[in-house]
UniProtKB/TrEMBL annotation:
Residues 7-164 form the Diphosphomevalonate decarboxylase-like N-terminal domain. One of its GO terms (cellular component) is cytosol. This is diphosphomevalonate decarboxylase. Its EC number is 4.1.1.33. SUPFAM superfamilies: GHMP Kinase, C-terminal domain, Ribosomal protein S5 domain 2-like. The keyword Lyase applies. It holds the Pfam family MDD_C. One of its GO terms (biological process) is isopentenyl diphosphate biosynthetic process, mevalonate pathway. The keyword Nucleotide-binding applies. GO terms for molecular function: ATP binding; diphosphomevalonate decarboxylase activity.
């Protein structure tokens, strides 16, 4: 019973930032992302009745400890769903350059969920697959779909109505994303720990939540009409509001480094030179830059020229999860 699946990472334009339920990963707000073609994980899962525990190999390394535990408990959910007490060997390969600051857990859990459920004989719909993937890593549930996807937070406390839905396919709009990889690699607060501290202590968190519904309505309108300025402005403002909440947490923290801010300022300066370009930042110092194909030369050259930039990694809209 073996299956292989491939899933791409995604970049949130309206951020998931806060859980209302941690054990089954239910968010405090809806979020919206674009699946990217440049970064993906390929995962094979083979259930084997002779195994007495799961085995996990990631990029040719045997995985143990916390990362292993997260995968094994995710497989427990799949075993329970299938009603089978079988262990599996999992082999994963990340095309996500770990330094890129992309949430490789997003492509990882989406590929694992797809390969694992297929290998154990569950034929899940994309909705069911997204709902399952959510329990591995929240943002991963959006990677089931290609192009633009919205994770609906749902209202029920059992999570049965919390999963992603497709908004527009990758073919809808050829916009570009450059992940600016900064050389500094200072330890950061994980997204899980960061959102927990923020939810529990930041006075700005409610303001963040209050602003989401309008951001979502406006950005979906912008996507529908391929209005780059509208999408870029909302995405950049939403990211800044998310990061503002961390400054009000106790103890306060930020994911930004000096080079993060330098890249942000350069992006804003390019706009004064009539280059339509916007940024978004996740739970790390790296900046993801949004632009249109006709500006790729000037944008990519400018980003490469900035001090403190180790590399830039380019993406276009990507496809949803596929079985190989
Ligand atoms: O991707 C976004 O919407 C925004 C973030 O990347 C941060 F900016 C959150 C990602 O959180 P994730 O790693 O999915 O958390 P988990 O559910 O605790 O595994």
């Amino acid at each position: 019973m073996k299956a292989t699946a491939k899933a791409h990472t995604n970049i949130a334009l309206i951020k998931y930032w806060g859980k209302r339920n941690e054990p089954i990963i239910l968010p405090t707000n809806n979020s919206l992302s674009l699946t990217l073609d440049g970064y993906f994980t390929t995962t094979s899962v083979e259930f084997d009745e002779t195994l007495t525990k799961d085995q996990f190999i990631l990029d040719e390394q045997v995985i143990t400890g916390e990362q292993y535990e997260r995968v094994a408990s995710f497989l427990d959910i799949i075993r329970k769903l299938a009603g089978k007490q079988l262990y599996a060997s999992i082999t994963s390969k990340n095309e996500v350059p770990t330094a890129a600051g992309f949430a490789s857990s997003a492509s990882g859990f989406a590929a694992l969920a797809a390969a694992g459920t297929k290998a154990i004989g569950l034929g899940l719909s994309n909705m069911e697959l997204s709902r399952l993937t959510r329990q591995g890593s929240g943002s991963a549930c959006r990677s089931i779909y290609g192009g633009f996807a919205e994770w609906q937070m749902g209202k029920k406390e059992d999570g049965s109505d919390s999963y992603a839905i497709p908004i527009a396919p990758a073919e809808h709009w050829d916009i570009r994303v450059a992940a600016v990889v900064l050389s500094s690699t200072k330890k950061k607060v994980s997204s899980r720990a960061g959102m927990k501290r923020t939810v529990e202590t930041s006075p700005f968190f409610q303001g963040w939540l209050d602003s989401i519904p309008q951001d979502l309505t406006t950005i979906k309108e912008g996507i529908r009409h391929r209005d780059f300025q509208k999408v870029g402005e909302i995405a950049e403002a939403n990211c800044l509001k998310m990061h503002a909440t961390t400054l009000g947490a106790n103890p306060p923290f930020t994911y930004w480094h000096d080079t993060t801010i330098a890249v942000m300022q350069k992006i804003q300066e390019m706009r004064t030179q009539n280059i339509p370009v916007y940024f978004t930042i996740d739970a790390g110092p790296n900046v993801k830059v949004l632009y249109l194909p006709e500006y790729e030369k000037i944008v990519e050259e400018t980003l490469r020229s900035l001090s403190g930039v180790a590399d830039i990694r380019l993406s276009k809209p990507g496809q949803g999860v596929t079985y190989l």
